[in-house]
């Protein structure tokens, strides 16, 4: 619904003596970051200083996360550069690891 329609609904409710509809608030990004997300993150290996492979729970699903990290205010933070593979995607990649190794060796 557009903002214009929402505003009208609120105004109509007020003119009829009803309470305006309650607005739901989303948690801030910092509140989401401070949840138990960090405890669900298991670092499997460090590929380099700033790149890590981890297994974590994201939106109720287990994913394999390959990601770059950066430091902000002395705290390590996940960057935008990376990929989260679902278990189905991870299994496909794992099943093709030998083929990938062969192609890499040929180059």
From TrEMBL:
**Cross-referenced InterPro entries, in alphabetical order?**
PC4_C, ssDNA-bd_transcriptional_reg, Sub1/Tcp4-like
Q: Which domain of life is it from?
A: Eukaryota
Matches recorded under SUPFAM superfamilies: ssDNA-binding transcriptional regulator domain (SSF54447)
Instruction: Indicate yes or no for the key word Transcription regulation.
Output: yes
The keyword Electron transport appears for this protein = no
Protein family per UniProt:
Belongs to the transcriptional coactivator PC4 family.
- What subcellular locations does the record give? Nucleus
Q: Which GO terms describe its cellular component?
A: nucleus
Name all Transcriptional coactivator p15 (PC4) C-terminal domain ranges.
Answer: 45-96
Q: Which Gene3D superfamilies match?
A: Transcriptional Coactivator Pc4, Chain A
In its UniProt record, which GO terms are filed under biological process?
positive regulation of transcription initiation by RNA polymerase II
The segments labelled Disordered in the record are 1-40
Offer an example of a GO molecular function term for this protein: DNA binding
| Predominant localisation class | nucleus
- Report the protein name in the record: RNA polymerase II transcriptional coactivator KIWI-like
UniProt xrefs under PANTHER family: RNA POLYMERASE II TRANSCRIPTIONAL COACTIVATOR (PTHR13215)
Q: List keywords of the entry alphabetically.
A: DNA-binding, Nucleus, Transcription, Transcription regulation
């Amino acid at each position: 619904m557009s903002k214009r329609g929402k505003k009208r609904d609120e105004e109509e409710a007020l003119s009829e003596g009803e309470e305006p509809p309650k607005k739901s608030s989303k948690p801030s990004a910092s509140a989401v970051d401070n949840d138990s997300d960090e405890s669900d993150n298991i670092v499997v290996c460090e590929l380099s200083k700033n790149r890590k492979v981890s297994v974590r729970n994201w939106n109720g699903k287990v994913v394999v996360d390959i990601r770059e990290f950066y430091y902000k205010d002395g705290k390590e933070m996940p960057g935008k550069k990376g990929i989260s593979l679902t278990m189905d995607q991870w299994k496909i990649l794992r099943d093709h690891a030998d083929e990938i190794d062969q192609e890499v060796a040929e180059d």
